[in-house]
Every structure is written in C-alpha cells, then in structure tokens.
Design brief:
Strand content: 5-15%
CATH class of one domain: Alpha Beta
CATH topology of one domain: Nucleotidyltransferase, domain 5
Radius of gyration: 30 Å
Largest sheet: 5 strands, mixed
CATH superfamily of one domain: YqgF/RNase H-like domain
Distance between the termini: 59 Å
Shape: globular
Number of helices: 15
Strand order of the largest sheet: 12-11-10-13-14
Helix content: 40-55%
Structural class: alpha+beta
Number of strands: 14
CATH architecture of one domain: 2-Layer Sandwich
C-alpha cells in the first residue's frame, strides 16, 4: 500500500533546553546515532557479502545486534530495515547507471555507423569519372572552410575519431561497473525506528500522542538518560492532513543543515472520493515545455471545455516547484468542479536523455530543463489528497491524432488537441482516422489502429506541405495529401 512521509525540523522548546542549549532528545539522538551507525555499517557489510544463493536470516541477525550493541528488538529491526533499504537502493542505482551507459554506448555506435556510411557513400560518388554530370547529387557534398582551412569531410572524420574514443571509454566504464563492488554510504547522524500497527501509538520504541514524543532509550544508554526521553515536538501541520491516529508509524531522525529533522512514515487515511467513474467523463492533460494543455470531455467523448496553463522553463528549483504546484492546484480545482478523474501520459525520458550527446545542445537544454517527473510526482500527491483519481495511459500518436482529427475541427492548439486525444484514450474511445485517409492507406482490419497512424506519420514526415505544426490547420482534406503519396 502507498505510504506518505511528513518531515519537519525537530523543535527545541525553551523549557527543555539545558545549559549548553540542547534538548535531552537531541543529546539522546546524538549518542544513539553513533551506536546505530556502527550497527548499520556491520549489517550493510553482511548483506553485501551474502550471496544470491543464500538466504538472509533476519531473526538471527536481529538477535546478534541485540546482544552486541545492547539494544531492544524493535531498535534492531529499525537498523536492519535501514540497512536493507540502503543496500537495495545502491544495487538499483548501479543497475540504472549501467543501463544508462549502455544506452549511451548504443546511441554513439549508431551515430558512428551512420556517419561512416554517409562518408563512404560520398567517396563512392566522387570516385565516378562523370560525377559532375550525375543526375543525383552527393548525400554529403564536399565543402571547404577558409577560416578553419579544412574540409567538411576532414571535420567529420575528426568527429568520428573522437566519438570512437568516447565509445572505448564507455566500454571500459561499463566493464568496470559490472565488476566493481557496490559501495553504500551510511551518514554519521541518523536514527531509524520501525513501527507496527499492532503496537500502541503505532510504535513500541517511539510513541507520539499528537504532541509529545516519548522515545525508548537503548539499554546501553540507560545509565545516562534513563529508560525513556520525552520531548514536545508538536504536530505535523498540513492543509490536508492524512496522518491517522491509528496504524503503524515509522520514525526517521537525521541531521541536515546543522539541525535535527524528524520524519514520520505512515499509511495515509482514506479521503472522500470526489471524482466519479471515468465513464462519465474525464480531463486529459498534455504537458509541453511551455504550457500544460487540458481538455474536458463528457461521457460521449465530446469536447466541453479546454484551456492551457502557461509556465516558464529554466527557473531555479524553488521557483520551479512553486510554479508546478500552482499548475497542479489549478488542475485539481478543474477536476473537483467537473467531478471527474485526470488522464495523463505515461512517459519515460530515460532513453531519450541517453541520446542527448548526439541530438545537439538545443534539444539537450530543452529536455534537461523539462521537469516532467517532478510535475507528475506533485500532481499525483495533490490529486490523491483531494480524492481525485490520476490515470496514466500510453501516449503513442496522441499528438498526431490531435493535430489530424481535432485541431481543425475545434480550432484547438496542438497541446489542447493532444489532451483531447489522451482523454478519449483514457475512456477507451475510438481513435480511427478520417475515412478518406484510411481508405487510401489500405487499412488492414486485423491490425491495430496504430499501424495506420504509423503509415500516416511517415507520409507526413516525407511531405513538403507540412513543415511545422501550424501547417496542419491548412489541410482541409487529408485525402489530397495521402493520395499522391500512395497512388503511383
């Protein structure tokens, strides 16, 4: 089940400060974090040594930690959970790193193959004696730069040479990462205590009644702090607070920017459902670098309302998050007004980001500044807190469908037209193209409709009439565009 985490700086009430300006809870956390770090490091080393064939005996290791570090069972369980999380995260990061480097290597090799083939075809063309009178031109014509005193062929071979060096370096890095041992970072000051729903206040070793936190002291520190330490930490104020009174609560204390931070992880309380089933209508959204287009359709799939939420790119992280939150709140108000779910695209830019080196600086800058993952992370959190469903769908050919079918019909911009197509896909409505188009493309009823969209996309890319998105509005009859390319 989905969990949430609320964080805030650990309060330091004046009445709890000692002579050196530190609360008793902070002193306990500082002392216990040293013991916890040693136990976590030992557990991490043990987990990394354990082979895939053997099984980790959690109960036996819990008993070992209790006896060696003089802590109770619940505190030892928190140490094991923290160590397992760090090891699993390190392994996942290693796999993602290797996968990203392999995709970069594949992209670089493809670039070298295409560039080499292009130069070889050019050499073959200029090797002909009558190349001057040839009917077809060279795919890579020869030119000379007076400022650089070199030809474009020399510069292209120079690029291929450096790309091959880059490929060699990537290969060595991938080979090293596959054999290198995994390293896990364990912070100096960190305490993790796992909770359980069967225990009072959701945690046996760390109990919070909504205002006061009472923490159980490890056996090894009872001579200095007693059996328990209490502190008035207050509550976790939120506009929509989903922290339940009952249920498991896992506590995490860590040091950041010179002060302690307290975090509680829990299973959120259910909220009243606002959005109706998707059969009654939905809102589709299409995210672009400069705006977020939205379109509301009714139960029949007809457009009833639409709009666009503009935003800027390249802002600092704080302003960027504030801008994203504002856009998400506007979408939440729209979904609450129409009492419907929100349908969005399910995109993965991991593979596209591995091609940035070969696509150019402009494309790399645009994609790097596009905070797609952050937008949908905040959108899902905000909609979930308000009882609104977020449905994700495959975005294949949604922009093409919107431009071909709905942009001219409703007079929509490209982002709103794509949002309309996404909304209709969320309701599993028809995505068929206009009949003049499908008739000339010879649609096979046994194939998926996306096969026809793929054919149309190829024809549009080859057409000289459509070079930008605004050209789609000038096409009144798509059969006039499709027919000359299909019929001889």
């Amino acid at each position: 089940m989905t969990t949430l985490t609320y964080c805030k700086g650990l309060p330091t009430p004046i009445e709890e400060l000692n002579s050196i300006g530190v609360t008793k809870l902070e002193m306990l956390l500082r002392a216990y974090s040293k013991i916890s770090r040693s136990a976590v490091r030992e557990t991490v080393d043990y987990l990394l040594v354990v082979t895939s064939g053997s099984k980790f005996d959690k109960s036996k290791w819990n008993t070992h930690l209790q006896g060696k570090y003089q802590i109770n069972k619940r505190q030892a369980g928190g140490i094991i959970a923290l160590a397992q999380g760090k090891v699993d995260s390190a392994k996942e990061c290693r796999r993602n790193h290797i996968k990203q480097l392999e995709e970069k290597l594949h992209s670089a090799k493809n670039w070298v193959n295409k560039a080499t083939k292009k130069l070889k075809l050019g050499q073959k063309f200029y090797a002909k004696k009558d190349w001057v009178h040839a009917r077809t031109g060279c795919n890579f014509p020869l030119s000379t730069s007076l400022s650089e005193r070199s030809t474009n062929w020399q510069r292209e071979w120079f690029k291929i040479h450096h790309k091959q060096r880059y490929i060699h370096t990537l290969g060595l890095r991938i080979q090293h990462l596959k054999l290198a041992p995994i390293r896990v970072k364990v912070p100096l000051e960190e305490v993790f205590i796992v909770g359980s729903k069967d225990e009072s206040y959701g945690n046996q070793a760390c109990q919070w009644d909504g205002n006061t936190l009472t923490m159980r002291v490890p056996y090894c520190l009872e001579d200095s702090f007693g059996k328990t330490v209490s502190s008035n930490i207050g509550n976790f104020e939120r506009n929509i607070n989903r922290l339940p009174e009952q249920g498991a609560k896992t506590w995490h204390f860590y040091r950041r920017d010179g002060r302690w931070v307290v975090a509680v992880q829990f299973t959120p309380a259910t909220v009243n459902k606002v959005s109706r089933p998707i059969e009654y209508g939905c809102i589709g959204i299409d995210m672009n670098p400069g705006s977020v287009g939205w379109a509301y359709i009714n139960s029949d799939g007809n457009l009833k309302a639409s709009g666009s939420i503009p935003w800027q790119m390249g802002l600092p992280s704080g302003k960027q998050d504030a801008q994203i939150v504002d856009a998400c709140l506007q979408l939440a108000v729209l979904a609450s007004t129409y009492a419907c779910p929100v349908v969005c695209e399910k995109l993965d830019f991991q593979s596209k980001k591995s091609l940035l080196r070969e696509r150019g600086r402009k494309y790399a800058r645009m994609l790097s500044q596009w905070s797609y993952a952050r937008f949908y992370e905040l959108l899902e959190s905000i909609l979930s807190n308000r009882g609104i469903s977020l449905i994700k769908r495959n975005p294949a050919y949604t922009s093409l469908i919107g431009l071909v079918k709905y942009a001219r019909m409703y007079g929509l911009s490209s982002d709103i037209a794509a949002a309309l197509a996404i909304a209709r896909r969320g309701m599993n409505l028809s995505e068929r193209l206009p009949r003049p188009v499908s008739a000339y493309l010879q649609v096979n009823c046994r194939k998926h409709v996306w096969s026809v969209l793929s054919q149309l996309n190829k024809l549009i890319s080859q057409s000289a009439l459509i070079n930008r998105r605004h050209d789609y509005y000038s096409v009144s009859n798509w059969s006039l565009l499709v027919k000359p390319n299909v019929e001889p």
